[in-house]
Amino acid sequence: SSSTAPASPSPPPICFGAPPHSSTIRWPPRPQEEDLSKILGSTCSSPERYRSRGDHSDDSGFESGDSGGSDGAGGQGGAGKRTAAGSPVPSGPVVTLDAMAPSAPEVLELLEFSSCFESSNLRYALYSVEDAAYDLILDNDVHTRGHTQWFYFAVRKGRPGQTVRLRIINMSKAKSLYRVGMRPLVWSEARAAEEAAAAATAGGPALGEWTRHWRGAASRLWQPAGSRVRYHRTPPRSEMRGFSGEGYTLAFDLTFGPGHRSSSHGSVAGDVVFIAMCNPFTYSNLRENLRAIARDPVTGPLCKYRCLCGTLGDLRCDLLEISNWSVSKTHKKSVVVSARVHPGETNASWIVHGLIGFLLSPGPEAQVLRNHFVWQIVPMLNPDGVVCGNYRCGLCGVDLNRQWRHPSEALHSTVYNLKRVIARSKRRSALCMYIDLHGHSRKHGIFSYACGQFGKEDYRRFTVRMFPKLLGMLTPEFEPNNCRWHVGKGKRGTGRVVVAKDVGLTETYTIEASFFGAAVPKEGAASASAGGQAASAGGGGGGRRRGAPRGGGGGGRA
């Protein structure tokens, strides 16, 4: 059974990019004490147990071969499941206990997890009694057996100042930026409420809707958090329900803040925190943004947006066109930009969000770009996967960025229709560039991939390198050494390669932005900054990134 809906209306979002308020999401019902007593009294006969092997008791290593995690376990309520269409359905309690079981009052003190909201991903949580840690299992991409890398979930019932160990034990990638200093991002509901109250006292909310969308407040409230962060191979353990025991573990300590203080009687309520791999950018965020653009009397006349097509999940895939429509299109060129074909690469959405904001701004550079180009932007090429909380695939269970050669109009409709838009623009000799925006989980900085394998005497060898060269000159975070000019193995079906080889456009690029930001040289050593991590997702953080002042906020230049 699901929890009842809140009686009072939900509070408005604090800023653009904020997670849903905890009162609006579903939390799995906690078992009653008498039910727990019955369950705990029969753990020895339970057929599904999370047994202790005793061969690994520590998760302190960085290397993939290091041991990690403890294997004795208690049980905790499930975090919630999502249907194939992306609708969250709260699961019942998952109680998988070993002989070392806690008492009923101890179980009632455990944290509560929920992934019953848009773009979230957490299948269930298990509590390890042996070392007081929570083992978390991510959901596979819909209709697949893997791609478990993106995570986004909520946690509550933590006491002020309490530190807990969280371990996501079925991550799919062997290499990760978590090995070199990257940390999960955390949104504290109590801290956000305090900052909103302070802004209201100072008159901050009178900034207007446009400023609320492009100010970057969400990037300041999503902060890197967690100590003793470790990323290593998940140790062997007996099979658990829905998880074979293979994969990699991300482990970290999370400390809860002071929580909410009630103004009526002065009591302190526990904080609710949201934990994510990168700053979330949901389908609802996109729809809200597009509606704000259309309503604004300044930006509305500069834009035309329409539904490119529908999706398998019956969602809209929008195409936004930006230009100065009072100037004739006769001599204008067209630039096509797409993002978020991989749902878990949320920083790509923040980059295209910043690009839209820049193109609609009153600055002289934006005016020149509107006067000479028609910008055709598909901000979210895989809305189904975004809603479902997938990392890489759509509802049909395949990577849409491998279907460009022969896309199905029924199964890969967004790719099919965008390819038609590109081909039609190329036939009219109007298309001058195609840019596909992505996020990268293993490298630092911003860099590009292009099809540039031309002979030294071929002029295209130089023209294809011109745009990355300009990016490197203008953007301190751009890493020219990470750029690639050849077609790698298995890349023939990607948008970049198909547009270059089949459509015939040389200037076609994949722009990759690191989840962790740019590398910052430190007196002979290179390290990554926490501020860069937040900047790669559209805003600054608490550290320092190359090209930004110490403690800087605001959006990244990409």
What does this 3D model show about the protein?
- With 558 residues, this protein is an alpha+beta fold.
- 22% of the residues lie in helices and 22% in strands.
- The protein is built from 14 helices and 25 strands.
- The strands form 7 sheets. The protein has a 7-stranded mixed sheet with strand order 17-18-20-19-21-23-22, with helices on both faces.
- It is globular, with a radius of gyration of 24 Å.
Task: Specify the structural class.
Answer: alpha+beta
Give the tally of β-strands. 25
Q: Beta-strand percentage? A: 15-25%
User: Whole-number average pLDDT?
Assistant: 79
Helicity level:
10-25%
Largest sheet: 7 strands, mixed
**N/C terminus separation:** 46 Å
Basic shape: globular
Radius of gyration: 24 Å
Number of helices: 14
What spatial order of strands do you see in the largest sheet?
Answer: 17-18-20-19-21-23-22
